[in-house]
Amino acid sequence: MRNLQWFPGHMTKAMRMMEDNVTVCNGIIYVLDARCPASSFNPSLKKMFGSKPVLYVLNKGDLADGRADAFVKRIRESGAPCVRINAADSRSRRALSEAVASLVAEKRQKNDEKGYTQTFRFMVCGVPNTGKSTVINLLAGNARAQTGNKAGVTRGKQWIRLDGYELLDTPGTTPPAFVNQKLAVRLAYVGSLNDDILDLDDIALALLAELYEKYPQSLKERYGITGETQGGEPPAPLDMLEKVCARRGFILRGNDYDYERGEKAVIDDFRKGRLGRITLDCVDDCKDFKF
Question: How many CB atoms lie within 10 A of CB 244?
Answer without folding.
Answer: 24
